Protein 1
Amino acid sequence: MWLNFPVMSVLELTDKQVLSLVRQLPTKSKRTALLALAQEAQVRRDERLRAGEAQLRRVAKKRGLDWSRLSEDKREALANQLMHED
């Protein structure tokens, strides 16, 4: 123990080893693991979407536009314009 905390070892596994271990789990545990991974992926997607929208709002504001008032078509046009700028 270090400063009254148990020391945890770090086990490094390859992706193949992790998959092999997951495949050995009972069906219910596999489902639990899959759901946990899916939830984590959803959180990351949501974070990226919020960051992307915030960035689009800033760019729109710099161009004198109010993102909240833009129609879906205008938003899409602005995003396309940004993707094709040099």
Protein 2
Amino acid sequence: MNEIDIQIEKDFSNIIMYENDCKYRNCTHASEKGCAVLEAVEKGIIMVADLKDYHKYLRNQLFLNNNIEYKKSKEKFKLKVSKHFKTLIDNQKKEVKELEEDIRVAEQEGEE
């Protein structure tokens, strides 16, 4: 567990404590029936402001993770395109050399 995880666990310990009691594993604590976190909010155990802060934190994390994934996929695409164009250029160079060789051979045959 890194420092950020420890800080999050500390900041949102009241929410994390109830998460495991939710009916669904992928509960978003927004509107699901059987959400232990929402039940704790209704009972006044967890403050609404804390849950909003938690949701804001999760949205920010999702944005950051998606941004990182986007950048990675963009770099992979650039690399793939670069390799593709390099292959095309190499093939064209090879074709030019073959044509030059054909011209040279034709010129030699014409001299004879």
